[in-house]
Design goal:
Number of strands: 6
CATH topology of one domain: hypothetical protein PF0899 fold
Low-confidence stretches: none
Bound molecules: zinc ion
Number of helices: 3
Oligomer: single chain
Mean pLDDT: 96
Order of helices and strands: HEHEEEHEE
Radius of gyration: 18 Å
Length: 116
Amino acid sequence: MHELGIVFYIIRDVKQAASENHVDRVSAVVMNIGEVSTVVPEYLTDCWRWAADKEPLLAGSKLKINMIPAVTYCENCGKEYDTVQYGRTCPYCSSGNTFLLRGNEVEIKEIEVPNN
Ligand SMILES: [Zn+2]
């Protein structure tokens, strides 16, 4: 389960951003998670709960997941299509000359702080 490792990376980045912005409490972290990234959102939020509550900065904070649909681009015909449904082969021209445009993200989108 590599989600715990990802959570530690997120915590490290959030701590750094918090200290740069003089923030001492975080209420939520919003993540962009690509549909074909290897991250399982349920595991990620479970790991977050366990790890974040050990950090004073993050105790009680939520991990919110923003799923990014996977889209592949075909270099042969220039069309974009749904990666999960069609994989590496273009459904329009059957070319395999394709690459993933988006859907592999594991990144912090936003850090929310308590408003008081
Ligand atoms: Zn094509």
